[in-house]
From TrEMBL:
This is Family with sequence similarity 72 member A. Belongs to the FAM72 family. It comes from the Eukaryota. GO terms for cellular component: cytosol.
């Protein structure tokens, strides 16, 4: 993956919530743009959002690139909230990417910036360990009340 020429360490880490039912979907979200069409805003995460979403429908390919995708739906309300890049195409792998393959539609989720351990500053990706001490499921319980607000 071509992450060496571009940096994402200064991006804020977000909690991602379903717009339809306010379910927490991920505690490791990042604002992103579609590599094949930078006019499309998305959110992404690097860890599979277990216990929050599941696959729905069949795999498909985009018209813009050759990535193989499968939609994901919120387990609480059933609405499609994004997709998983099952097999990224060469073009997308070679472009500046953040290595995230779980994508969320900006029309289906909203984000809340996470705070660092001081509770004052936004948590940045450069300060986020690859594997947090709390599992993503633990963070979902903690951050659920943030989505409700």
């Amino acid at each position: 993956m071509s992450t060496s020429t571009c940096s994402f360490k200064d991006r804020c880490v977000s909690i991602l919530c379903c717009k339809f039912c306010k379910q927490v979907l991920s505690s490791r979200g990042m604002k992103a743009v579609l590599l094949a069409d930078t006019e499309i805003d998305l959110f992404s995460t690097d860890i599979p959002p277990t216990n929050a979403v599941d696959f729905i429908g069949r795999c498909y390919f985009t018209e813009i690139c050759k990535c193989k995708l499968k939609d994901i739906a919120c387990l609480k309300c059933g609405n499609i909230v994004g997709y998983h890049v099952i097999v990224p195409c060469c073009s997308c792998l070679l472009s500046c990417n953040n290595g995230h393959f779980w994508m969320f539609h900006s029309q289906a989720v909203y984000d809340i910036n996470r705070l660092d351990s001081t509770g004052v500053n936004f948590l940045l990706w450069g300060n986020l360990p690859e594997i947090e001490e709390n599992t993503d499921e633990d963070m979902l319980d903690i951050s659920a009340e943030e989505c409700i607000r």
